[in-house]
Amino acid sequence: AWNAIILDFPEPRLDFIKDLAAKGKFRLFLLSNTNVLHIERAKEEMGKETYEIFRDCFEGFYLSHEMKMRKPDAEVFRTILATHSLRPQETLFVDDTLEHILSARNLGLKTWHLQVGKEEVSDIIKYL
Questions:
Q1: What's the rounded Cα separation, in Å, for the pair 116 and 79?
Q2: d(Cα 57, Cα 28) in Å, to the nearest integer?
Q3: Phi-psi region at 73: left, alpha or beta (left = phi > 0; alpha = psi -120 to 50)
Q4: What is the pLDDT of residue 45?
Q5: pLDDT, tens digit, for every residue of 48-75?
Q6: Is 34 in contact with 65 (CB distance < 8 Å)?
Q7: Is-contact 107 2, C-beta < 8 A?
Q8: Are 41 and 6 in contact (CB under 8 A)?
C-alpha cells in the first residue's frame, strides 16, 4: 500500500506542503511506517532531489524503521511530542488509518482521519 501512495504523489500536493512549510505558521512533522525498501522506492519514483525537497519541508521526519517504533504504538507519538516539546492539545495528527488516529486521540492529540480518494491533504486549509 505504501508504494501505491508513493506512485501517487502529485506535484500539487508537494507544492501545498512546500507552501505550508515556507509560510512558517505551523511546525510540520512527518511520521511514516516504512522500511528501507519503501524509502528507496520513494527516492526512485519522486527523484532524489524532489524527495529531499519534500523531506526538508518538515522540522522532524520520522520513519518507523529508523525509530524502531511504529504507529499506532503510543510510544512513537510520546517520543516525538517530547523531543520537540509539543503539547498534544495543540498538535494536529493527520492519518488515513483509523487505528493510528485513535491512538493519537487517546494521547490528547487533535486528529483528522483523511479519507483517501475523497479528500486531499490540502483540504486541511479549510480547518486551519
A1: 27
A2: 7
A3: beta
A4: 86
A5: 999 999 999 999 999 999 999 999 999 9
A6: yes
A7: no
A8: yes
Which domains are assigned to the chain? 2-126 (3.40.50.1000)
Backbone φ and ψ of 113, nearest 5°? -85, 100
pLDDT recorded at residue 2: 52
Chain length of the chain: 128
Cα 113 to Cα 93: distance, rounded to the nearest angstrom: 9
- List C-alpha distances in Å: 48 to 13, 39, 53, 66: 17, 10, 9, 19
SS (H, E, C) 34-103: CCHHHHHHHHHHHCHHHHHHHHHCCCEEEEHHHHCCCCCCHHHHHHHHHHCCCCHHHCEEEECCHHHHHH
DSSP 25: S
